[in-house]
Amino acid sequence: MKRTRLIAPVAGLVVFFGVWEAFVRVFDIRPFVLARPSRIVRYLAKFPDDYFNAALLTLRHAALGFAFAIAAAVFIGAAMAASTFLEQATQPVLTLIAVTPFAAYIASVRVGFGFLSERPVIFIVALVALPAFTFAAVDGMRGADPASRELLASVDASPWEVLWHLRLPSALPALFTAAKYNTGLALVVAYLAEGPTGGLGKIGARAVANNEGDRLWAAIFAMAILGTISLVLLNLLQRAVMGWHASQRTQRV
Amino acid sequence: MTAAVTLRGVHKSFGTLEAIAGIDLDIEQGSFVSVIGPSGCGKSTLLRVVAGLEAPSSGDVRVYDEPATIARRHKQVAIVPQNPGLLPWRSVRANARLLVEINSSANRSTTSDPIELLDRVGLTAFLDAKPYELSGGMQQRVALVRALSLGAPLLAMDEPLAALDEITRSEMRGLINQLVEGRGVTTLFVTHSINEAVALSDRVLVTSPRPARIVGDIKIDLARPRRGDVDDDSRFFELCSEVRHALHGGHGGEG
Question: Is residue B98 less than 8 Å (CB to CB) from chain A?
Answer without folding.
Answer: yes
